[in-house]
Design brief:
Radius of gyration: 14 Å
Oligomer: single chain
Number of helices: 2
Helix content: 25-40%
Distance between the termini: 33 Å
């Protein structure tokens, strides 16, 4: 969750305390080493990780 403090200052609650975010970091690091693109429905966490680690991720799409 992001809280607006001033017009350009944001504070993000730490996700580092959650096990799932830690696992997402491991997935991202592994994908980066392999040169793979991550397919995920969890774009919120991977956007945070992508801001500090050079990774690529996409959300899945549905076929009708």
């Amino acid at each position: 969750m992001i809280h607006l403090i001033d017009s350009n200052v944001y504070i993000m609650e730490s996700k580092l305390l959650t096990r799932s975010f830690g696992n997402d970091i491991l997935i991202a690091a592994s994908a980066r080493e392999l040169g793979a693109i991550i397919l995920t429905e969890n774009s919120e966490d991977f956007s945070i990780i992508a801001s500090v680690l050079d990774i690529q991720f996409v959300e899945p799409f549905l076929r009708n």
